[in-house]
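Q: Can I see a sequence and its folded structure?
A: Here is a first one.
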Amino acid sequence: MTEISYRLPQKRALTTVLPGPRSQELTARRKAAVAAGVGSTAPVYAADADGGVIVDVDGNSLIDLAAGIAVTNVGASHPKVVAAVTDQAQHFTHTCFVVTPYEAYVKVCEELAALTPGDHEKRSVLFNSGAEAVENAIKVARLATGRTAVVAFDHAYHGRTNLTMALTAKAMPYKTNFGPFAPEVYRMPMSYPFRDGGLDGKAAAAEAILRIEKQIGASSVAAIIIEPIQGEGGFIVPATGFLPALAEWARANGVVFIADEVQTGFSRTGDWFACDHEGVVPDIITMAKGIAGGMPLSAITGRAELMDAVHAGGLGGTYGGNPVACAAALAAIEVMRDYDLPARARRIGEIALARFGELAQQVPAIGDIRGRGAMLAIEFVRPGTTEPDAALTAKVAARCLEQGVITLTCGTFGNVIRLLPPLVIGEDLLDEALTVLCAAIEEFAA
């Protein structure tokens, strides 16, 4: 395992109250230029980032437990990624693969065939965003099967485009007043151990399958799409056996099983992909976020017979698989191998879960601690109940930011703190961030 070196000092250091004067100035300019519908978690403006820190325009160094929402797994400015981007940009930034193709696109697809679950013959297509990948995975499934119905799940998040909003479960802020949505999307119950009484995974899958068969009919279903660990819905880890049972039913009924690994992919959960944990082999897998070290790139990889069923010209796009983003992806994947980032993700999980386990013994407001690898969550409730406590969650996140630690909230009920640190974060820095987070929890939960 290669030792990690850093360009910026890996420390938390606050020189101003947050947000500082320069960030406040930029916020004023933003209000006059940026649409109000674009939100930001932290009102501090980044000037530099490396490893586990983000330095803002006022010189404050904050510990990053968000990684750009699981994007900068290898860090926000890894030298290999920077060098690859620079070299490619010096040759050409764009030709459009559907006009004049280039080798980097092909090499990324070759890497995805090797990395994604299963040893079957595969094909890939590259796009720009996670939502775009999901849209195209559904297109492939519908064309290949000749069916139209798509099954998604409670608490799911798949994007903000029209079709992906239909697939997404949470109304506010993602869907409210944006309809009507794409048709033929059906929602089924998710395995959510904390809120379904710890229902066995196979039993939970049987309940979902029964509803699919009764409400839609297996012969009408083109695809099941599911996040192996749900993201925005609250980092919900389904009970063991849930995913394999769904995949087995899909295979037996000619239904395309799509694993949305946009947030879970590329070492985040302690495996290259979250499906690896239970040996689930999806028919199509969607990817984005951590794939390219911060450059906009997404992909779908699927069984050759499915992907090749689409007519020439039916897939693609002007910027899909941009050569600079492809160069970044190839470098990022190399870094993931060099650093053995799946192992580092598992180590992050061990450290954090040990701290949270101790804390939960003393804080009744902690209803659940869950996650895998470096994709972790704490769900807050009113003590003695399962009633969500979104107000407490917001207070904890705000206090962390005041103290120079960037966290994220999520969950259908807005009551979950999620941790997505860069996988290259140092253990000392991680420990300091956890100390700040645990202190904030103790302060407000009391």
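Q: Show me another, different protein.
A: A second, unrelated one:
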Amino acid sequence: MILSSGTGAITARFPVPRKPFLRLAHDVPTNFTADIILRDGYLLERHQVITADGYILTMFRIPGSPANPPRVGKHVAFLQHGLLCSSADWVILGPGKALAYLLVDAGYDVWLGNARGNTNSRRHIFHDPDAHNTDFWNFSWHEIGYFDLPAMIDYALGNTGHTTLQYAGHSQGTTSFFVMASLRPDYNKKIRSMQALAPVAFMSNLRSPFVRALAPFVNQIEWIMKMLGVNEFLPSREMLTLGGQRLCQDESPVQEVCANVIFLIGGFNSAQLNRSIIPALLENVPAGASANQLAHYAQGCNSGFFRQYDFGLTLNLIRYGSVRPPDYPLHRVTAPVALHYSDNDWLAGVPDVRELHSHLSNSIGLFRVSDPRWNHLDFVWGTDANSFVYERVISFMNRYN
């Protein structure tokens, strides 16, 4: 392992042999994302980054494939997952369908990020995520945007010799981007284009019953969880994985129940969910997150604003100098942003996406998915995501190269 200083972070790289590429399987620890990539025949590197506040994040790099070998000068694409998910989202659809593979096939050097707290990034230089009342979980997606994304972006650029990259994010991967680009505006110049899939910032028109049911009680729930010392929201556990494999597999009489649980989160679209991948999805999702991440979204749902975390009147005065948390200054987002949205998205409502668009000074535009049933999770799990979304995403990336 080689340690070196990075911009805003200390970085750690776990080198792997470059020849022969098929030996990479012996140098990458067992991991759900890694297993998928190696199974599908693509090349793989595992990298670790330590953020400025001490979180150890794992990134997976797909520099090429045997049919499309790595070479110097490839454009860099960085992909960031959504809430309770991980880097596996970008490869789970398989070759010819998953965005990460399509980008590799199109000649990109692809980097997959993992936010703090998920199964790939559940480490800190001194906080223990499993300890009672640990400070490890004292973060929301604000810290992911402020610390994690800059550390991972700088690391990817430093290792490739580039000064700019293409960014694609889904759901929370867009929220955290807008945090970074508004509060650390120097990072805008490092982004050639940002492809926002199901962008979430404003949330007044959210329709998901799960979040709607939680939002009015967020303060009470947050207090109860802290009193109980429960800081991690829906951690990934072996029992859930085993249950998903047995109850949700093909030929299971309750497989459709599994599908409907997924639909209740982001919207119904039966035609786009391949039931055969549900056990694999449940092996990876939920990948773990801080309870504060969901609470922060619930606060936005209640307030109608895109603003920093609300700690309560007293702590807000101490932290922000005001009784209310400040809005994120979206006018400082100058990177070109394409907003990809859909009519049947229960988490990123169309009026909210349009509100976000109105605050962006350099928007590429609003791009509606033509399928009226397309939902929030179809952007990463939809059977036809390539034809409905990814072809357009890659076209924009190529244009902004």
